[in-house]
Request: fold
Amino acid sequence: MVSFQNIILQVQVMVPVNINHRMKKLLALIQVVLASLTACVVPPSHRAHAPLDEDRVGAFADTVNGKAVKLYTLRNKSGMAVEISNYGATLVSIHVPDKDGNDGNVLLGYDSIQGFYNGKSYFGCVVGRYANRIAKASFKLEGKEYHVPQNDGLNSLHGGINSIDKQVWDVRVMNDAIRLTTVSKDGDNGYPGNLKLTVVYSLRTDNSLVIDYTAVTDKPTVLNISNHAYFNLTGDPSKTILDHEIKINADAFTPVDSTLIPTGELKKVSGTPFDFTQFKKIGKDIDQQDQQLIFGKGYDHNFVLNKTTGTLPVVEVMEKTSGRKMEVFTTQPGVQFYTGNFLNGTEVGRGVAYQQRTGFCLETQQFPDAPNQTAFPSTVLKPGETWKSQTTYKFSSVK
Ligand code: BGC
Reply:
């Protein structure tokens, strides 16, 4: 299709070098007119990378260790927009229409990049090199013992401090996608091997946000990479998520000890508060006097996903007042269902102090502490191999 941008380019190419001054002025004028026409014909909401708000672009722009931190926007023609920062490859906001077509941001986040620098709750970022926990912050790999940071009692959580979520990633902007890459150096937070990680966020016209992860290493290592987005489908993060209804396609979960390390058992959900095989309100059983819920202060557990054909969602979430629905698809074996139990009002953004259970995470993942649990699927990546995984969050609405 011939676009106005193409016409402008062609006009520029066609301009002969010896053209007289008046003619040049006329052509410049034509270019300005065509550019404004482009702006009128294609509304901002339909331009693939048009920012939601210029002030926000400024609030999320910075330089860290000589590298530019920027806010990128992906938009589609179905009313969805996603803001992404290359700091931590972070999802900053996800805007989706409700049942009446009203726009709402369904992500917990901050109002400036400083919030993400100081944040302790991993809002929207990519977590690794080992998402979730490693018991006693150590593991053995090929006979050698490795020590990683103890940042959660005696355990290691989400790769340790200043991990990939606090790095500035390199960016390539593509048509309907943003590609981010980073290298976590050999020995970074104690993990072996130079690990090259790529994350591609693609926004489809059916309101799916597809996340493709790829990793390669030059030494054997362990890895578990996930995204730590907190969702609240009402679009109003001052409300709790307890009335959201959720269905998880998992017949089992991995129970934990008091430090949230899996015991190794795969426990059937049937007859427990962890049975989400049919739609159930998140809040229905959350305060039961159940040992697992007491340990987690709510749900903070890895669900063992049933094998699906790949076309079926592994998780579905419904929020009736807004009519918003989210479906999750993944190639990963597990999902951490975390109900924001440790949010306590100290993280502030979007005009609210985020309180307990005002957001939920569905962190698709390998199983927690797998490097120490031989019965769990292996998380070892070797040189010459490419680790790939894909997770999709798909949004829709129902009246
Ligand atoms: C963990 C929680 C933790 C949260 C924020 C989740 O993935 O399972 O226990 O509080 O991340 O760090």
Q: What stands out?
A: The chain has two domains: 4-42, 50-399.
